TrEMBL record, chain B:
The keyword Transmembrane helix does not apply. Residues 120-172 form the RNA polymerase sigma factor 70 region 4 type domain. This is RNA polymerase sigma-70 factor (ECF subfamily). It holds the Pfam family Sigma70_r2. InterPro entries: RNA_pol_sigma-70-like, RNA_pol_sigma-70_dom, RNA_pol_sigma70_r2, RNA_pol_sigma70_r4_t2, RNA_pol_sigma_r2, RNA_pol_sigma_r3/r4-like, WH-like_DNA-bd_sf. Keywords: Sigma factor, Transcription, Transcription regulation. Belongs to the sigma-70 factor family. ECF subfamily. SUPFAM superfamilies: Sigma2 domain of RNA polymerase sigma factors, Sigma3 and sigma4 domains of RNA polymerase sigma factors. CDD domains: Sigma70_r4 (cd06171). Residues 26-88 form the RNA polymerase sigma-70 region domain.
Length: 272, 180
């Protein structure tokens, strides 16, 4: 290959990122797409970069006007579909090849479930949800990667709760201005609970979360890590409130101290 | 039901499945299109085209090649960018004013809508990029500029912009986590 040819090839490779961002001029776009069909490495790279770009899209989600729905659904009724995949055609000419693609993205198989977090209903973005988010990110700086990964997993669980159609939020404050926040879905029996202002407990002590139910013993929902929301699952509908107590390390089977804070669950759809 | 499964039903002509799919994707599609196109009426038009195109070409979706949601959002972005560029070209023909660089408007948009978890996360991760990486990525993706236009606006060589875009996206991936 001539030096010039090599140079031009390298030059084309460097267009992967602009291409993934839809930032090429039309003729460059066409040249690059042609190149893509013969370059598996580039196709894989473009896919990976395009997935990154799509994350930028998610963060912009906004409620469309109601009439858009009726318009689209009406149009669907009278719009015939294309017959499925025309044989011998690798991808629709008007669509980016990495969408129709020639091979799977490298090692990026995504669990479908993982997408759910992104459908956060806007109605739940209340003060308590903001509290959850704030406490999630307040302490990220300087953390090791595995901690960040754990955090992200938790973020996913949290988002799952937030995404429930019936998710509702509530906050409670005690006399000293310390607060407890909850975002809960009665249908899913799940809640995300955050504490703020309680600071670090002395070594050997831990904040434990309890589910209070009528005519039943409090049930432990778990122990708080400092500055970290707690995801509680398996909440029964009859639950009336949440309580937090200070317990010895490792927690207790039943509360051994008076609650430092308590929050009724009525406003988030429980206790019926 | 997840979008990938719904797409398979939609490909078979199932209108109820499309209604469900609409519920899942219309927010992200509309939000993205509006971010790029800005004009509300045009945004609705483009979003409608994209959703209708999803219905028409659902049969081409192949789940083994990526998620339905990326498929749809990639389509939405492409259409939004096409629209904003042809609108800009029309304006440019009338008045070739030298547009001076201004900071990308992701601040103002972040305030415009309520905070979702994903939005917070992306915002946080964008904040961690260098200014040039962030501007290169957001001017292209959110404002629909080509990399040549971005280079122009930032007074940078083309090669630098391409590198900043790639580094920005890669760093964003590291921050957001590959499997989000």
């Amino acid at each position: 290959m001539s030096v010039l040819g090599l140079f031009r090839r390298e030059d084309l490779h460097s267009l992967a990122a602009p291409y993934a961002l839809d930032a090429l001029e039309p003729d460059e776009r066409r040249r690059f797409e042609k190149h893509l069909t013969g370059c598996d490495r580039c196709a894989a790279e473009v896919r990976a970069l395009a997935e990154d770009a799509v994350r930028l899209a998610w963060s912009q989600a906004a409620e469309p006007p109601a009439h858009l729905r009726s318009r689209v659904l009406a149009a669907v009724q009278r719009t015939p579909q294309e017959s499925s995949r025309a044989p011998g055609r690798e991808y629709a000419p008007q669509l980016p090849p990495h969408v129709w693609g020639t091979q799977s993205p490298p090692g990026r198989s995504r669990a479908p479930r993982a997408r759910r977090p992104l459908f956060v209903p806007f109605a739940t973005a209340t003060a308590a949800a903001a509290l959850v988010v704030a406490s999630l990110f307040a302490v990220q700086a300087g953390r090791a990667q595995d901690e960040l990964n754990a955090e992200r997993d938790r973020a996913r669980e949290i988002a799952h709760v937030l995404a429930a159609p019936d998710a509702r939020a509530s906050t409670g404050k005690d006399a000293q201005g310390r607060s407890i926040g909850v975002v809960a879905s009665a249908a899913e029996g799940q809640a995300v609970v955050t504490l703020s202002g309680y600071g670090k407990l002395p070594t050997g002590q831990v904040h434990q979360l309890w589910l209070m139910r009528p005519d039943a013993q409090p049930r432990s929902l778990g122990l708080f890590d400092p500055d970290t929301p707690l995801v509680a699952t398996g909440l029964d509908k009859v639950a009336t409130s949440l309580a937090v107590t200070v317990e010895p390390d490792g927690g207790s089977p039943q509360p051994t101290t008076q609650p430092v804070v308590q929050l009724t669950l009525k406003s988030v759809g429980f206790g019926e | 039901m997840e979008a990938d499964e719904l797409m398979v039903l939609v490909a078979g002509g199932d209108q109820r499945a499309f209604e469900q799919l609409y519920g899942l994707v219309s927010g992200p599609v509309f939000g993205l299109v509006r971010r790029v196109v800005r004009d509300p009426a045009q945004s609705e038009e483009v979003a409608q085209e994209v959703l209708l195109e999803t219905w028409r070409s659902a049969g081409r979706f192949d789940p083994s090649r990526g998620s339905a949601l990326s498929w749809i959002l990639t389509l939405a972005h492409r259409r939004a960018v096409d629209r904003v560029r042809s609108a800009r070209a029309a304006v440019d023909r009338e008045q070739r004013e030298a547009s001076r660089y201004h900071d990308p408007a992701f601040d103002q948009v972040a305030e415009e809508v309520e905070a979702g978890l994903e939005r917070q996360l992306v915002r946080r991760c964008l904040d961690r990029l260098t200014a040039l990486q962030r501007q290169s990525v957001t001017l292209a993706y959110y404002d629909g500029y080509t990399y040549r236009e971005v280079a122009d606006r930032l007074s940078l060589p083309l090669g630098t912009v391409k590198t900043r875009m790639r580094d920005g996206l890669t760093r964003l991936r590291d921050c957001l986590g590959g499997a989000a």
